[in-house]
Design brief:
The complex is a heterodimer. Chain A is built from 10 helices and 20 strands. By secondary structure, chain A is an alpha+beta fold. Chain A has 2 domains: 230 residues, Rossmann fold (3-Layer(aba) Sandwich); 124 residues, Beta Barrel (OB fold (Dihydrolipoamide Acetyltransferase, E2P)). Chain A has a 6-stranded mixed beta sheet with strand order 6-7-8-3-9-10, sandwiched between helices. In chain A, helix 2 packs parallel to helix 4. Chain B has 2 domains: 76 residues, no CATH class; 178 residues, MetI-like (MetI-like fold, Orthogonal Bundle). Chain B is mainly α. In chain B, helix 8 packs antiparallel against helix 9 and helix 9 runs parallel beside helix 13. The chains are: A alpha+beta, B mainly alpha. Chains A and B meet through strand 6 and helix 2 of A and helix 8 and helix 9 of B.
């Protein structure tokens, strides 16, 4: 793709960025490209490097290695007050000694915008976030949700190239948080500004974002659309972090044209799609909602296993059954009560059930080629390893 | 519930007792500013101004002899009292301003320093506060005298040397007060200002400084109070300059007259008026803008108690 001068494909670009705090590597050689106008979430547990990444874009931290481009120009060393980037802080960081309107107009004032224009633009920004009639109040007189809106208006009024949001909904209660999620998405679509949103809440990230970058230990584990992240987690970490996941380990016994069969022990046989080499140990993930439980114990086959009920729980619209498979592994089955077999209502702990899933449910997550003896290890050549990896990547 | 209300009443009484214990001496002091010399002392006295009696002739004024206001005019016309009060007030005001400025700079610098570099500075600051004043006083005296021997333009013992001594102590105090608030503030507000395009100077002017204001006012008031009534350090480094505490201590030797009470009462009244005026102004500006309690109000409340 060729670009005209001044025209760049990405609003923010990380090229091999590393950031260390003492011995700790907070961000480890991360590459990231944020498209114009997209809503991108950085999702991960605390300490995964998501906030550090955001603070580097804002200019509060400087990368130790790598290149950081904002709007196609090198931003390393540029102080925060010379970047066309604004932040909505986790704690809102409203100026307590200023009125709401002065807070919102603060950035425009620094820019040298005239007073009348400042008031007009700030009023518009407050309208955009649906907070009017409180312009002369101090922030301390507003509720958490209202303060959140002021913080958002204060950043939006600057019309930044990129808006950074650092867990902005973390301090709100659940109901308000859901409301604000819808609001944020509406505002983002209305103003068309690139949003980079940091959160540890997977639901928040999945529901609002165009793309989600799942981070762990300073690296991006997977960057994809929310649907792909959920349906096709590429690593064990992503599979475990996003939603619930049952993990089964076993050895690949058969491999037939894009299909694999794994023996997980105890008569549990998993058949699924994906490139796995025969004899390798694999870890397979199956979402609880992709499984069904039936009372009784019909004849066993692949993707269907005998299990003992450990406990049963009603989650409103869903029923969740915790079972122990014949190989000793515990898994969780979750079914919509509207579509679940009504007999499940009279299943109790200790009962035998049959757990089954279709062959699209198992996700191949980790694969290690065994080195069973030293003789085999000597025969094992790097080219074979490369071949295995290539086949994994094809999937 | 009776149990709770009885406990509440008990605490109220206790609080009342504490306040009486704190303020009764001050009330008695003010009352005795209006005390007449004893009848025995007035026997054979011919003039109209009872308070013109020499201090050793006024008899026992620790018992109530009758009402007079003449001590106020006696105090205000005393050749040494009022000039000493003015000197003390000047030194205290200058010390408060200089110490607060220094304390502010030190607080800003130290709060953002690495612990390793900060530690020695911290030790110095705490040393000036915990070393007994008498030690500092003796050391200051020797230092000032020696310095003048080597540096001709260094001032003689007097107003300026007292001021320097006060500034050293109060700057440490101001630094601690301001730094406590600065650290408590965190740096997100400053980051927010930077984020909105405000450079370091305007961020300080528009965000950091206004947020530090309560601590700055509090440390200025504290510095003023501490240096106004400090005796030990000025007594060593005053040369021929007399501050109000020095004059009072030397007056004790000849017997204190109720004129001292009268001047103290005037100062108390002036202070009370000033504090109430400031509190009223703050309350008005607060009710206009926010209902939430402000730190200025509470630190001022602390000052009144102080």
């Amino acid at each position: 793709m060729t670009l005209a001068p001044g025209d760049v494909a990405f609003d923010v670009e990380f090229r091999g960025i590393t950031k260390r705090f003492g011995p700790l590597v907070a961000v480890n050689r991360v590459d990231l490209q944020v498209n114009k106008g997209e809503f991108l979430s950085l999702l991960g547990p605390s300490g995964c490097g998501k906030t550090t990444s955001l603070r580097m874009i804002a200019g509060f931290e400087q990368p130790d290695e790598g290149e950081l481009l904002i709007g196609g120009t090198d931003a390393v060393g540029v102080p925060p007050y010379r970047r066309n980037v604004n932040t909505v802080f986790q704690s809102y960081a409203l100026f307590p000694h200023m009125s709401v309107i002065d807070n919102v107009a603060y950035g425009l004032k620094q820019r040298g915008t005239g007073k009348a224009e400042r008031i007009r633009l700030s009023g518009e920004a407050l309208e955009l976030v649906q907070l009017t009639g409180r312009q002369d109040h101090r922030p301390s007189m507003l509720s958490g949700g209202q303060q959140q809106r002021v913080a958002l208006a204060r950043a939006l009024v600057m019309h930044p190239q990129v808006l950074l949001l650092d867990e902005p909904l973390g301090a709100l209660d659940l109901k308000l948080r859901k409301e604000m999620q819808v609001e944020l998405k509406r505002i983002q679509e209305q103003v068309g500004i690139t949003f980079i949103y940091v959160t540890h809440d997977q639901e928040e990230a999945l529901s609002m974002s165009d793309r989600v970058a799942v981070m762990s230990n300073g690296v991006i584990e997977q960057l994809d659309e929310p649907r792909v992240i959920y349906d096709n987690p590429r690593t064990s970490f992503v599979a475990e972090f996003i939603g619930d996941m049952n993990f089964l380990s076993g050895v690949v016994t058969e491999k037939v044209g894009g299909q694999f069969i794994v023996d997980a022990g105890g008569g549990v046989v998993i058949r699924g799609h994906g490139a796995a080499s025969r004899g390798s140990s694999v870890r397979v993930g199956i979402r609880p909602e992709r499984m069904t439980a039936l009372p009784g114990s019909p004849e066993q086959q692949a993707n269907s296993a005998k299990a003992t009920v450990l406990s049963k729980m009603y989650l409103g619209d869903q029923i969740q059954i915790s079972v122990s498979l014949a190989n000793g592994q515990r898994i969780i089955v979750r079914e919509q009560r509207a579509s679940a077999n009504p007999v499940l209502d009279v299943v109790y702990s200790g009962d035998e059930v049959l757990v089954s899933w279709d062959d699209k449910a198992p996700l191949l997550l980790e694969q290690t080629v065994p080195l069973q003896s030293s003789a085999e290890a000597e025969q094992y050549t790097p080219s074979e390893e490369a071949a295995v990896h290539a086949s994994t990547e094809e999937s | 519930m009776p149990r709770v209300s009885r406990a509440k009443a008990g605490f109220s009484v206790w609080a009342g007792v504490v306040f009486v214990f704190l303020y009764l001496p001050i009330a008695v002091m003010a009352l005795f500013a209006f005390n007449k010399p004893s009848e025995a002392a007035l026997v054979g006295f011919q003039g109209t101004d009872w308070c013109a009696l020499p201090p050793d002739k006024i008899g026992n004024v620790s018992v109530w002899n009758g009402f007079t206001t003449c001590w106020f005019s006696a105090g205000l016309h005393d050749p040494s009292y009022v000039p000493a009060i003015i000197t003390s007030a000047e030194i205290a005001a200058l010390a408060a301003i200089i110490a607060t400025c220094l304390g502010l700079c030190a607080a800003l610098a130290l709060a953002r320093m690495k612990t390793k570099i900060r530690a020695p500075f911290d030790v110095l600051v705490y040393l000036t506060l915990v070393v007994p004043e008498i030690v500092v006083a003796v050391a200051s005296l020797i230092f000032f005298v020696q310095l003048r021997n080597h540096v001709p333009f260094f001032p003689q013992l007097g107003f300026w040397t007292i001021l320097i001594g006060q500034v050293v102590f109060n700057a440490s105090l101001a630094m601690l007060v301001i730094r406590a608030r600065f650290v408590g503030m965190g740096d997100t507000l400053e980051e927010a200002a930077y984020d909105l395009g405000s450079g370091p100077v305007s961020t300080f002017r528009q965000v950091t400084f206004p947020r530090l204001m309560p601590a700055i006012v509090a440390s200025a008031l504290l510095s003023f109070t501490f240096s106004f009534d400090d005796y030990v350090l000025p007594a060593f480094t005053n040369g021929t300059t007399n501050t109000w505490p020095i004059v009072l201590y030397s007056a004790v030797r000849f017997g204190i007259t109720p004129a001292v009470n009268a001047l103290a009462t005037i100062m108390l009244a002036l202070t009370a008026v000033a504090v109430i005026a400031v509190a009223l102004v703050l309350r008005r500006s607060r009710s206009r803008t926010t209902s939430a309690p402000d730190a200025v109000g509470s630190s001022l409340g602390g000052m009144i108690g102080f």
